Amino acid sequence: MNVLDCIIIGGGPSGLSASLTLGRARRNITLFDDGTNRNRVTQASHGFITRDGIKPQAFKEIALKELENYPSVSYFTATVTEIIKDIGNERFTVKTSTSQEFVSEKIILATGIQEIFTIPSIRKFYGKSLFSCPYCDGWEQKDKPLVVIAEKEEHVLHLTKLIYNWSQDLVVLTNGVQLSKEGKIELQKHNIKIISEKIKDLIGNDGYLQKIEFETGANNYKIGWICCPILLSPKSIC
């Protein structure tokens, strides 16, 4: 079995960039991508110079086309299921969902992070009309009335302070969590309304959020929506 210089796990921007750099260095590498990139739900990627507004899939296609120029780079659509380190020779054996095995001197984990939402229905709208990164999508939401969904006080205060530069018409939904007296005062100084009622459901069509229903029966309507997911490292594959 041929021993690779490096195996890269994850076909997002980081994994693709690492593949390009190592390919240009004439290293024998293999890139594994299972197609579950975090940005796959995004309509357009922003803030990347020369590619502002590009669709994530189009970005990936351009990157993979560029990698074809480097014969030492191989690309596989597969999930890495196990990584085994050989203590004797410091090499790694990688097993995949396609029942293949590869051996490499080095491993680069470019698997990114996972997003966890305590309100499951957020997934139906996330990336199309409900966003988590103001720097990615704030420009398109500028000067609109915005709802901020966040359940931890530190997230509420951080996110509202950040978003305030794009829009000063904000309402905070804490999904049943009560903010401290100090937290409420800080938001009230900027005329930011706080709704602490428990959220029942998010309502909309075709990925576009139209309203939020509360367990009390009340509704909230706004034009733009921002949420704060819980960010976790991906599950271990080692």
Automatic annotation (TrEMBL):
<keyword id="KW-0285">Flavoprotein</keyword>
<keyword id="KW-0560">Oxidoreductase</keyword>
<comment type="subunit">
    <text>Homodimer.</text>
</comment>
<feature type="domain" description="FAD/NAD(P)-binding">
    <location>
        <begin position="5"/>
        <end position="149"/>
    </location>
</feature>
<dbReference type="GO" id="GO:0016491">
    <property type="term" value="F:oxidoreductase activity"/>
</dbReference>
<dbReference type="Pfam" id="PF07992">
    <property type="entry name" value="Pyr_redox_2"/>
</dbReference>
<dbReference type="InterPro" id="IPR023753">
    <property type="entry name" value="FAD/NAD-binding_dom"/>
</dbReference>
<dbReference type="InterPro" id="IPR050097">
    <property type="entry name" value="Ferredoxin-NADP_redctase_2"/>
</dbReference>
<dbReference type="InterPro" id="IPR036188">
    <property type="entry name" value="FAD/NAD-bd_sf"/>
</dbReference>
<protein>
    <submittedName>
        <fullName>Thioredoxin reductase</fullName>
    </submittedName>
</protein>
